[in-house]
Design goal:
The protein has 16 helices and no strands.
C-alpha cells in the first residue's frame, strides 16, 4: 500500500469518525459508500482467527501484520481518532447554532447512500422487498426509542462502548444515537472534549470487545447471506431517515424560522458529495483495472 493509498484510507476513516460523532449518522454507511465496508469487516474478523494469533506467538510478526490487514487498520484508525478528537466540539457547535442546515446535509448524505445501496442489489422480488421492509421496521424501531438515563459507573461505560461500537459499523445505524438512547452521548462527548482519559479508556475497551465479537457475527452473515444482510441494512438506512429529518428535532421545532431554502440547498450538497465520491471511486477503480 503506497503513501497515497494510505492517506486515502485515513481520509475515509476521518469521514467515518465524523459521521459517528453525529447522532443519526452512521460511520458504517460512510464505509459502505466509500468502498471499504467489507475490508473493515474482513480485517476485524481476522483478529478472531486462531491462525492469526498462532503466527504472532511463533514470532512471525510480518505474517501477523498481513493477516490482520495491519496497514489498512492503522491508517483507518488514525483517520477515525483524528476526526473524533477534532470534530467533537465542531459537531456540537453546528448542531447548536445551525441545526436545520446540519441535519439537512446529513439527510442528503443518507438519501444518496440509500440510492447507491439500492443500485448495488440485483434481482428484486417479493423476498427482497420483505427483507428490506423488515430492515425499515427495525430502523424505525431503533430511531424512535426514547432516551433513558443510566448511571456513570465503569461497567455501564464499558457496556455502552460495546453496544455503541456494534452499531457504528452497521450502515444506517448511528452509534452516537445509541449513546443518546442510553443517556451517555453528552457524557462521552464531554469526556472527549476534556480528554477525560479514565472514561475514554474504559469506553475504548468496551468498543474493542464489542467490535471483535460483533464483526465475527457480521462476517458470518455476509459470507452466507450477503444479499439478505445487505437488504436489511438498506432498510436500516431508509428507516434511519425518520431520525435525521431536519425538522424532527425538538430544538429545531422551537426555531422561529424553518429555513426551508437553506435546508434544500444543504440536502442537495449532501447528495452531491456522496455521488461525487462514488463517481471518483468508480473512475479510480476503472483506471486501476485498465
Amino acid at each position: 500500500m503506497g503513501l497515497i493509498q494510505r492517506l486515502v484510507v485515513a481520509l475515509k476513516g476521518f469521514c467515518m469518525g465524523a459521521a459517528n460523532v453525529v447522532p443519526g449518522v452512521s460511520g458504517g454507511t460512510i464505509a459502505l459508500i466509500t468502498g471499504i465496508y467489507k475490508d473493515i469487516i474482513d480485517a476485524i474478523n481476522s483478529l478472531m482467527e486462531r491462525k492469526t494469533w498462532k503466527a504472532l506467538f511463533q514470532g512471525d510478526f510480518k505474517g501477523f501484520w498481513n493477516d490482520i490487514h495491519g496497514t489498512f487498520l492503522l491508517w483507518l484508525g488514525i483517520g477515525v481518532v483524528l476526526s473524533v478528537f477534532t470534530l467533537a466540539k465542531l459537531m456540537t457547535y453546528v448542531l447548536d447554532y445551525y441545526p436545520v442546515h446540519t441535519w439537512a446535509f446529513f439527510f442528503g448524505l443518507i438519501v444518496a447512500s440509500a440510492i447507491l445501496m439500492f443500485r448495488g442489489i440485483k434481482g428484486w422480488g417479493v423476498k427482497e422487498i420483505l427483507f428490506t421492509l423488515a430492515g425499515i421496521g427495525l430502523g424505525l424501531l431503533v430511531c424512535t426509542l426514547s432516551p433513558t438515563e443510566t448511571p456513570d459507573n465503569w461497567l455501564i461505560i464499558f457496556l455502552c462502548g460495546a453496544i455503541a461500537v456494534c452499531t457504528m459499523i452497521l450502515p444506517g445505524v448511528s452509534g452516537s444515537f445509541v449513546l443518546v438512547i442510553l443517556g451517555k452521548y453528552d457524557f462521552i462527548m464531554e469526556a472527549v472534549a476534556e480528554l477525560n482519559w479514565p472514561v475514554l479508556i474504559v469506553f475504548a475497551l468496551g468498543c474493542g470487545v464489542g467490535i471483535l465479537a460483533f464483526a465475527k457475527f457480521l462476517h458470518w452473515l455476509l459470507a452466507r447471506f450477503e444479499k439478505e444482510t445487505m437488504l436489511v441494512l438498506l432498510g436500516f438506512v431508509l428507516g434511519s431517515l425518520v431520525k435525521i429529518w431536519p425538522w424532527a428535532n425538538d430544538s429545531v421545532k422551537a426555531l422561529p424560522e424553518p429555513h426551508y431554502g437553506a435546508a434544500a440547498l444543504w440536502c442537495i450538497l449532501g447528495i452531491a458529495l456522496v455521488l461525487g465520491v462514488e463517481l471518483i471511486a468508480t473512475r479510480s477503480a476503472k483506471r486501476q483495472s485498465d
